[in-house]
Amino acid sequence: MRVIAGKFRSRPLRALRGLDIRPTSDRLRETLFNVLTAGNPEALAGSLWLDLYAGTGAVGIEALSRGAGMVYFVESSKSAADVIRGNLDSLGIKTGFQVLQEQSTRAIPLLLQRQNIHPDFIFIDPPYGLQKEYVATLNALGNLELSPGTLVMAEHEKRFDPGDEFGSLRRSRKLVQGDAALSFYRRVGS
C-alpha cells in the first residue's frame, strides 16, 4: 500500500494484519481522487476532510498529499489509530490533522455540532461486515445541516447497497470497481 500522488507520492503506508482492517485499495483510491480532481490537481487545495472508520488513514493521507488543509481521522480501534499516527509520522506530517479514537457515529456530532467544523469531504468506510454502520453513519450525517457543497463518499461491497436517501442526503452517483463500489451523496438542493 502506498500514497498514489501528490507531495508524498509512492511513499509506503503500513497496514494492520488481518481482515478487520481492510484498507482502500490503491486502485480504488486512485479512481476516487481522479473523480474528485477531474483533471484539476488543485481541486483539493485547502479542503477539510472527515475520514470516518479511517483504518490505516490511507484516504485521509492521500487527501493531505494532494493539498487538503485539514483531515480528521476517526477510528475506534486503538491499534488502527496507532497505525494512522505511525503512517503520518513516517511521512513527516506534523500538522493539518487530528486523530480521534472514537466511534464514528459519536464523533460526527462532536465535530460538526460542538466543534462547528464544515467539511468539504466526508469519507466513510466501515468494515464490510458491519452493514448497519453504513445506515447509522449516513443517517447521522443526513440529519445534520451539512454545508451545501459537502460531498459524502461511502466505500462498500459491490453487492451491498447502502441506500439512496438518508435525511437530506441523496445519492448522486455510484461507481463500481472490482468487488468494491463508491457511492457519492450530496445534500438535497446542493
- Quote the average pLDDT: 91
Number of strands: 8
Structural class: alpha/beta
User: Class in CATH?
Assistant: Alpha Beta
CATH superfamily: Vaccinia Virus protein VP39
Query: What is the ordering of alpha helices and beta strands?
Result: HEHEHEHEHEEEE
Question: Can you describe what's shown?
Answer:
- This protein has 190 residues and is α/β, with parallel strands linked by helices.
- It has helices at residues 26-37, 58-65, 78-90, 104-114, 131-142; strands at residues 48-52, 70-74, 97-100, 121-124, 151-157, 165-166, 169-177, 180-187.
- The protein has one domain (26-187): Vaccinia Virus protein VP39 (Rossmann fold, 3-Layer(aba) Sandwich), CATH 3.40.50.150.
- It contains 5 helices and 8 strands; from the N terminus they run αβαβαβαβαββββ.
- Strands 3-2-1-4-5-8-7-6 form an 8-stranded mixed sheet.
Which features does this protein show?
Rossmann fold; alpha/beta; 8-stranded mixed β-sheet
What's the gist of this structure?
This protein has 190 residues and is of the alpha/beta class. 29% of the residues lie in helices and 23% in strands. Helix 4 packs parallel to helix 5.
Topology at a glance:
Blueprint: H1 26-37, E1 48-52, H2 58-65, E2 70-74, H3 78-90, E3 97-100, H4 104-114, E4 121-124, H5 131-142, E5 151-157, E6 165-166, E7 169-177, E8 180-187
Parallel strand pairs: 1-2, 1-4, 2-3, 4-5
Antiparallel strand pairs: 5-8, 6-7, 7-8
